[in-house]
Design brief:
The chain contains 2 helices and 15 strands. The chain is mostly beta strands. The termini are far apart. About 30% of the residues are buried. The site of D-sorbitol-6-phosphate has 13 residues, from strand 5, strand 12 and strand 13.
């Protein structure tokens, strides 16, 4: 199939990618195994809390094509651990990704057989996530949403098991004096 030229636009008002055709919402109940202090008797209202939203522009999942999306992570924490994405690796491990900060203040956690790294995600700052590095984003501003743009090869696939089998070495918690602190897994 031939992909024709098209345009998208970062919508700073609605916190979405204009022109996207795939929208998802991830709630606390979708992240049960991922938070350190998960309460198995959590109340329904808390379970329904939205943690992040993604709007993605789909293209054919063929080599050479690029996917793009906007992720909005809402401000908040669960028992002190900041709102974050599930995190994943790419099924095609060689596939790289770029994140560009649009609004707010976050951290991108990255982990591979070469160790753990993190980078600050700020407006205008671009982070290159090489192939083979699992990645998770954390909103470390307790007052404001975090918005970032991602672009990656359309044939990458998602490997969510990767971060279950091999959890990130550090978690990010709210801290009253420093803003945030790392806790070893
Ligand atoms: C895709 C890219 C992002 C994330 C999104 C949600 O390769 O890394 O679009 O999908 O930020 O995170 P997650 O871990 O739930 O897919
Ligand atoms: Zn990715």
């Amino acid at each position: 199939m031939t992909q024709l030229p098209f345009v998208t636009r970062i919508d700073n008002v609605n916190h979405t990618l204009e022109g996207a055709d795939n929208f998802s919402e991830t709630r606390l109940k979708d992240m049960r195994s991922l938070y350190r202090y998960w309460n198995s008797n959590e109340d329904d209202a808390t379970l329904e809390t939205i943690v992040y939203r993604v709007s993605r522009k789909d293209v054919p999942t063929e080599p050479g094509e690029l996917l793009q999306c906007i992720t909005e992570i809402l401000p908040g924490d669960y028992h002190g651990e900041f709102f974050m994405t599930k995190g994943h690796g790419h099924k095609q491990r060689e596939c790289t990704e770029i994140y560009l900060g649009i609004a707010g203040y976050g951290l991108v956690l990255m982990q591979s057989e070469n160790g753990f790294r993190f980078e600050e995600l700020l407006p205008g700052r671009a982070i290159y996530i090489p192939g083979g590095w699992n990645h998770r984003t954390v909103n470390i501003d307790p007052q404001q949403y975090l918005l970032f743009y991602s672009i990656w090869p359309a044939n990458s696939g998602y490997d969510y098991e990767a971060v279950i089998k091999n959890p990130f070495q550090y978690r990010v918690f709210r801290d009253t004096t420093q803003g945030y602190r790392f806790e070893e897994r």
